[in-house]
Amino acid sequence: MIKKVKKEMLIAVVIFLLIFNLLSLPVWIIIYLDITFPKLQTLLASSLEHVLNFLNVETRRKGFVLLLADPKMPQIVIDADCIGWKSMLMFFALVLATPIKFGKKVGKLKNKIKNYFPKTKLEALAIGIPILFIINFLRILTTILIGYHFGVSYFTFVHTIFWREGLILAVILIWFLWLRKQKYIIKQK
């Protein structure tokens, strides 16, 4: 019995990793083809410009480049990686790759397919992706504000060390919270 459970868990992990890696392929394709998102970059830069000006940080925008009035601050380019697309796509892959079992077994194949595409996954994506967008917006905003108030060296540290890992942790945390909710729902049934 224990061997059967371990084997089933191992198979579930292998299937999860296989699906996750397949769903991660678009990240590598977008990177390889050097695809950019200029309209999203401009939208994000425009939003940041408005919020920074509201916070009394005089800012002008040219396309997706932010120019702060402080001459010590370099121009800030909102490039394709700034929009957070990798984090959102990885969250998408994590959610879709996660097997979740619901209810009675209907049939082996039908049940396996149903386990990978329940309605709660769409709900997780509908909630998680906007949360990641907001976190990403706050990431850029706080990085700029820290650089503006404390200097470029702090800007570099916060940008390259703190927030890069922080966004990865945010993706994992949101996914983990969703998993915990699923575990609770399954126990209630």
Descriptive overview:
Helix 2 crosses helix 5. The protein starts with a helix and ends with a helix. It has a 3-stranded antiparallel beta sheet, covered by helices on one side. With 189 residues, it is mainly alpha-helical. A hairpin with a 7-residue loop joins strand 2 and strand 3. It is elongated, with a radius of gyration of 21 Å. It has one domain. The protein has helices at 2-32, 38-54, 85-97, 108-116, 119-150, 152-188; strands at residues 59-62, 65-68, 76-77. 74% of the residues lie in helices and 5% in strands. It contains 6 helices and 3 strands, in the order ααβββαααα.
Run of helices and strands: HHEEEHHHH
**Helix share bin:** over 70%
The radius of gyration is 21 Å
Biggest sheet record? 3 strands, antiparallel
